[in-house]
Design a protein that fits this description.
By secondary structure, the chain is an alpha+beta fold. The protein contains nine helices and 13 strands. The chain folds into two domains: about 180 residues, NADH:ubiquinone oxidoreductase-like, 20kDa subunit (Rossmann fold), CATH 3.40.50; about 110 residues, Cytochrome-c3 hydrogenase, C-terminal domain (Cytochrome-c3 Hydrogenase, Chain A, domain 2, Irregular), CATH 4.10.480. The structure holds iron/sulfur cluster (SF4). Iron/sulfur cluster binds next to helix 7.
Length: about 325
């Protein structure tokens, strides 16, 4: 949980750029115990404005709704209790990560701790906060879903909120900022040529598309992960691992992340906006027209047949 105040110089520098003051963070702040409690009490007393309440991690509501499975050390109160108390005082409430947004891995069945997201439990509206909850500026919980969410998604969201540039219309149906949720993780994947020809990898480390056999769900998952490189150059699929749709509620219940669930030989999860009959017909057509180069390279861990540019004739 982090508390942000707008309009004062503060730390760290990335937030400072947008005039955001980090009031308290459990790892980044020196304040702890009584000092942290005093900071919260200044908010409750109305002495410190709370621009944004930012929560990371699922909230444990058990046992029996007490929240005592997860106490905020030194305060004698549960995280559940603090969040429910602070949320109505915040201009904006932000869930960072799919656990805070939807419950995520801690909320997977049988969910013994009664873990929940802030305003969703899986796909069901209503979690720690009621489905009708709106923060002081009129927004539902802003869900920066992802496991982990891209750091730039977090910074851009906080910057947009600080600048008053994020409205309800800028959020998708699960409260995710559209600047990244209006994309599919599939967009920009370096394996797109293999996807178009349904030239599939059958084993990890092969270069082909991972949708047909290796569980890739990027055609069904929102995110600009393949357009906005991680750590300056990567993404899950770029690193040879299938997209597990970590920005979607319920991703944690998959039986096998590296195996495509199929029915009658057809992947169960098809591209979001494509009717099944179209996909089957296009896949058959694509496979019948797959160039030898693409088919061979899809099943290899390096390029075995390069493009035949210039007719393949040496120029010098
Ligand atoms: S591996 Fe996944 S993201 Fe890449 S092209 Fe295939 S379906 Fe799309």
């Amino acid at each position: 949980m982090a508390a942000l105040e707008h309009g004062r110089n503060g730390w760290p520098a990335a937030l400072d750029t947008f005039g955001v003051n980090l009031l308290w963070h459990p790892s980044l702040s020196e304040a702890t115990g009584d000092e942290a409690t005093a900071a919260f009490n200044r908010i409750f007393a109305g002495h410190t404005p709370l621009h944004a309440l930012v929560v990371e991690g699922a909230v444990l509501r058990g046992p029996n709704g007490s929240g005592r499975f997860n106490m905020l050390g030194g305060t004698g109160r549960s995280m559940l209790n603090w969040i429910v108390g602070l949320a109505p005082l915040a201009d904006y409430v932000v869930a960072v990560g799919s656990c805070a947004a939807f419950g995520g891995v801690p909320a997977a069945p049988p969910n013994p701790t009664d873990a929940s997201g802030l305003q969703y439990l899986d796909t069901a509206p209503g979690g720690v906060l009621d489905a009708t909850f709106r923060s002081r500026k009129g927004l539902p919980v802003v869900n920066i879903a992802g496991c982990a969410p891209h750091p730039a998604w977090i910074m851009e969201t906080l910057a947009a909120l600080a600048l008053g540039k994020l409205a309800a219309a800028d959020l998708d149906f699960y409260g995710r900022p559209k600047f990244y949720a209006d994309h599919l993780a599939h967009h920009g994947c370096a394996r797109n040529e293999f996807y178009e020809f349904k030239a599939s990898a059958e084993s990890l480390s092969e270069r082909g598309c991972m949708m047909e056999h290796l569980g890739c769900k990027a055609t069904q998952a929102v995110g600009d992960c393949n357009q906005r490189a991680w750590n300056g150059g990567g993404s899950c699929t770029h690193g040879g691992f299938a997209c597990i749709a970590c920005t979607s509620p319920g991703f944690e219940t998959a039986q096998n992340y590296l195996e495509t669930a199929k029915f009658a030989g057809i992947p169960v999860g098809l591209p979001l906006d494509m009717p099944k009959a179209w996909f089957v017909a296009l896949a058959a057509l694509s496979k019948s027209a797959t160039p030898r180069r693409v088919r061979a390279n899809a099943a290899a861990d390096h390029v075995v047949i390069p493009p035949a540019g210039g007719g393949g004739k040496r120029r010098i």
